[in-house]
Write a structure and sequence with these properties.
The protein has 326 residues and is of the alpha/beta class. It has helices at 43-50, 73-80, 98-108, 113-126, 142-154, 172-189, 200-206, 224-228, 234-239, 267-275, 309-318; strands spanning 2-12, 16-27, 32-36, 58-63, 66-67, 83-86, 160-164, 192-197, 209-214, 217-223, 252-259, 278-289, 292-302, 322-325. Strands 6-7-8-3-9-10 form a 6-stranded mixed beta sheet, sandwiched between helices. A 4-stranded antiparallel beta sheet has the order 2-1-4-5, with helices on one face. Strands 12-13-11-14 form a 4-stranded antiparallel beta sheet. It starts with a strand and ends with a strand.
Length: 326
């Protein structure tokens, strides 16, 4: 569906600034991909390269088998209709109603008025604003404005939806509503979603896969289940923190990762009973991620009566838990 290979964006001012540095990834149809990073990591520049609001210095961007960077202006305008963008602050036209904002891209595309009206009505219903089409942005809440922005981005039936910090200006309850709306639209339409954020909760709540971006590079990426199942993953520690290790607690320290039925299986209780070891839980998180119940724990155990550290690790791994030294 969308493939990015060796993408690089360099700004040449009095000095050279590398904003995106050799980024590559490939997404399947219908995937929700989150890019997590701090301010200045290069996330927004990367997103602007994906819809060619910024021209990359080098690399390739392929959508539906078409290399966007190889297209002429006319073909590129047509290809861009297959990429919708939701902006951080909505970026709605204040002089237009919600319906007119949604219709704007359809007007530019030359869609007849009757079909425009039908499509706008469909989209207003889709985002839960069927009765607010005649409202201007000033008459809508921040969450409602963002819903209009989402509807506008979907107007031309894009294959890819880009979300640029789409919830960062919203309160927590509204953020959850918007994220759930994006997930619902993804499930109903199959649109592939790329979202950038500095908030772990955004990625944790709806993403199927994710990347951690620092200094213009992806330092880690993969499916959510693979990431949270890796006790050594930095991204997993951000999404499901186990807390800072307290080395004053005696015993061997381990980090455990588990998913689905193992998340509710009393494995540690059985371990204590079967091997006679004592387990201290030092920290951890249990959450629902990408439709799966997953967890990460930092524990310490005190082996005794001839039971070795390896015995404990082998027991846990046989039970389906991923284990590494903390």
């Amino acid at each position: 569906m969308i493939a990015v290979d060796s993408l690089r964006k360099v700004y040449r001012t009095p000095r050279e600034i590398v904003a995106v540095d050799d980024v590559s990834f490939a997404l399947e149809d219908g995937e929700i991909f989150g890019i997590l990073g701090r301010s200045g990591a290069g996330k927004s520049t990367l997103l602007r390269c994906l819809n060619l609001l910024e021209r990359p210095t080098s690399g390739t961007i392929t959508v539906d088998g078409v290399d966007l960077l190889s297209l002429g202006e006319a073909d590129l305008r047509a290809a861009r209709r297959r990429i919708g963008t939701v902006f951080q602050h909505g970026n709605l036209l204040s002089s237009r109603t919600a319906a007119e904002n949604i219709a704007f891209g359809l007007e530019i595309a030359g869609i007849p008025a009757r079909r425009r009206a039908e499509r706008v009505a469909e989209l207003l219903d889709l985002v839960g604003l069927g009765d607010r089409g005649d409202s201007h942005p000033s008459q809508l809440s921040g969450g409602q404005q963002q819903r209009v922005g989402i509807a506008r981005a979907l107007a031309t039936d894009p294959a890819v939806l880009l979300c640029d910090e789409a919830t960062s200006a919203l309160d927590p309850a509204t953020t959850e509503q918007i994220l759930d709306l994006v997930a619902d639209i993804n499930a109903r339409t199959g649109v592939t979603v790329v979202l950038i954020t500095h908030e772990a909760e955004v990625v944790r709540r709806i993403c199927h896969s994710a990347a951690l971006m620092e200094a213009g590079r992806f330092v880690e990426s993969g499916t959510m289940l693979r990431l949270v199942g890796d006790p050594e993953s930095r991204l997993a520690e951000i999404l499901l923190p186990t807390g800072n290790p307290d080395r004053t607690i005696p015993g061997r320290h381990l980090t455990l990762a588990f998913a689905d039925e193992r998340a509710v299986d009393p494995i540690l209780s059985r371990l204590t009973r079967d091997l006679g070891v004592e387990i201290s839980i030092l920290g951890g998180t249990l959450e629902r991620v990408a439709g799966h119940q997953v967890g990460r724990l930092r524990v310490a155990h005190d082996s005794r009566d001839g039971v070795t550290d390896d015995d404990v690790v082998d027991y846990l791994r046989a039970a389906g838990v991923t284990v590494t030294a903390a």
